[in-house]
């Protein structure tokens, strides 16, 4: 049985297409297999033995073709230019590595003459518990769009079998702005004699200069700023006295706080950034993965992961200083869903900092000593800066704003689809 609704009739004004439990011929259901060249087209059929819930799905197989690329396509009309649409589809695969790149759902917008209108949009692949994963795509129809091609594709996986099911395409309300008020502190403590005194100086500067924010970023290693303590001598447990003091600041200002500290755990010492929530509770921490030679020689241990934290305003990633010299920390955070990266930093390459924002299509908020204290948008543009000490850069940013390029489209999802993470890196 095929549950097929062509919206208006059965499911209300928003639903344009819903299909599941596939049976019969693909053509009768509006689907056919497309590819740039017939010799690299995957084999497509309705598999009546495999489906999500009720049996029956749209299947694709690479059949050993090294350059396999293509898949299912279906046209949907009555598209309104400027209106927002959502495609949701579930998939299951076998013989696929790097599903984010191999399993592709796409909207190819077309005008009344079936010519491309604007750039195609790519879905975000989400791995969820169980055999079936979900891809979601939300995008506005570009100027001139009157129809759209729904494409469910298999790319570059010659030994793969891929099943698509629960295809849903609907018109949705345009997302409302998601405004986040961000503040980042430009400050350096002077003439202090302890961790507690150094941290207290930063807290005092923040209270004097920050009025209202959702996120406040402080610099790297505030526990050693202004005193003569070594990395290891300044290290303390987390949670500990410094996170308690920062928790009081977060609670007083009703903001999330990010700050760099030196952490001690057992025999190891880490350069760590902490995240404190609005209640003053430690919400998470990140241990600096890329340590410069000086920090290794100073007795620090490198971190081993790139956590992304859920906040009440969005998903936040943390980096520290030397991390900005390398592409993979910001990339890992973006792949983990980060929309915004907070960067406590002593000094480093401003060019590389802006590059991290541009290449990963997210906001970067830095708080530095010898690096600019600034807020950078996904286009690499500085939207606020604080050149003087003490000073605060503040800006309201919209995490729902869609950054597009006329000849490329929305690059955030496209970038991670095209990213060749599957190609091994070798060193000689």
Explain the overall architecture.
The chain is of the alpha+beta class and 428 residues long. The chain folds into 2 domains: 3-174, Galactose-binding domain-like (Jelly Rolls); 179-399, Nitrilase/N-carbamoyl-D-aminoacid amidohydrolase (4-Layer Sandwich). Helix content is 16%, strand content 37%. It is built from 8 helices and 27 strands. It has helices at 99-102, 195-209, 231-234, 241-253, 293-297, 327-335, 350-360, 411-418; strands at residues 3-5, 15-20, 32-34, 43-47, 57-61, 69-76, 84-94, 103-110, 121-122, 124-126, 133-140, 147-155, 161-172, 179-186, 215-217, 256-265, 268-276, 282-287, 308-310, 315-318, 340-345, 363-368, 374-376, 382-385, 391-398, 404-405, 409-410. The strands form 5 sheets. Strands 1, 2, 4, 5, 7, 10, 11 and 13 form an 8-stranded antiparallel β-sheet that branches. A hairpin with a 5-residue loop joins strand 23 (374-376) and strand 24 (382-385). Helix 6 (327-335) packs parallel to helix 7 (350-360). The relative contact order is 0.11. Residues 1-13 have low confidence and may be disordered.
Notable characteristics:
Jelly Rolls; alpha+beta; 37% strand; 2 domains; Nitrilase/N-carbamoyl-D-aminoacid amidohydrolase; 6-stranded mixed β-sheet; 428 residues; 8 helices; 16% helix; 27 strands; disordered N terminus; 8-stranded antiparallel β-sheet
């Amino acid at each position: 049985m095929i549950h097929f609704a062509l919206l208006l009739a059965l499911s209300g004004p928003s639903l344009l297409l819903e299909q599941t439990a596939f049976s019969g011929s693909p053509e009768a259901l509006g689907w056919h297999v497309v590819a740039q060249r017939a010799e690299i087209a995957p084999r497509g059929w309705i598999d009546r033995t495999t489906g999500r819930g009720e049996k029956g799905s749209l299947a694709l197989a690479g059949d050993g073709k090294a350059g396999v690329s293509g898949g299912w396509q279906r046209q949907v009309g009555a598209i309104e230019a400027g209106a927002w649409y959502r495609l949701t589809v579930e998939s299951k695969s076998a013989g696929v590595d790097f599903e984010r790149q191999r399993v592709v759902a796409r909207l190819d917008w077309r005008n009344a003459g079936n010519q491309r209108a604007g750039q195609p949009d790519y879905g975000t692949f989400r791995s969820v518990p169980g055999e079936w994963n979900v891809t979601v795509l939300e995008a506005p129809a570009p100027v001139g769009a009157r129809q759209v091609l729904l494409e469910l594709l298999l790319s570059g996986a010659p030994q793969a079998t891929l099943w698509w099911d629960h295809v849903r395409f609907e018109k949705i309300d345009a997302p409302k702005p998601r405004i986040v008020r961000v503040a980042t502190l430009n400050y350096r403590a002077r003439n202090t004699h302890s961790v507690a005194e150094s941290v207290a100086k930063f807290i005092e500067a923040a209270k004097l200069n920050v009025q209202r924010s959702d996120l406040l970023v402080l610099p790297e290693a505030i526990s050693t700023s202004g005193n003569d303590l070594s990395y290891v001598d300044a290290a303390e447990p987390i949670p500990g006295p410094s996170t308690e003091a920062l928790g009081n600041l977060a609670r007083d200002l009703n903001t999330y706080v990010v700050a760099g500290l030196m952490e001690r755990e057992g025999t190891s010492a880490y350069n760590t950034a902490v995240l404190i929530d609005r209640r003053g509770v430690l919400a998470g921490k990140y241990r600096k993965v890329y340590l410069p030679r000086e920090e290794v020689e100073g007795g620090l241990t490198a971190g081993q992961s790139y956590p992304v934290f859920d906040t009440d305003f969005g998903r936040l990633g943390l980096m520290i200083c030397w991390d900005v010299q390398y592409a993979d920390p910001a990339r890992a955070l973006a792949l983990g869903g980060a929309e915004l990266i907070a960067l406590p930093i002593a000094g480093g390459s401003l060019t590389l900092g802006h590059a991290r924002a541009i290449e990963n299509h997210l906001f970067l908020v830095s708080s530095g000593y010898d690096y600019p204290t600034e807020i950078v948008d996904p286009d690499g543009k500085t939207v606020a800066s604080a050149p003087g000490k003490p000073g605060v850069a503040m800006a309201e940013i919209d995490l729902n704003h869609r950054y597009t390029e006329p000849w490329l489209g929305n690059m955030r999802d496209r970038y991670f689809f095209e990213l060749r993470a599957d190609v091994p890196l070798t060193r000689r």
